[in-house]
Amino acid sequence: MSEPGGQELKFSKNPVIQQEVETTEESILRIDPEINKSTARTISRKQVADHFRIKRLQDEKASFEKEAIRDPLTDLYNLRWFTEEIKRKTAEVRRTSGPLYLIYFDFDDFKNFNTFYHHAGGDEIIKLMKHLSAKSAREDEPIARIGGDEFVQLLNRDLTDDDIKGIVERYRQDISSTSTEVLSNLPIDPKLQSSDAPKVATLSYGVARYQNESPKEFLHKADRAHKHAKSLGKNTGCLAQAVNEHLIYTELK
Question: Is 81 or 5 the better-scoring residue by pLDDT?
Answer without folding.
Answer: 81
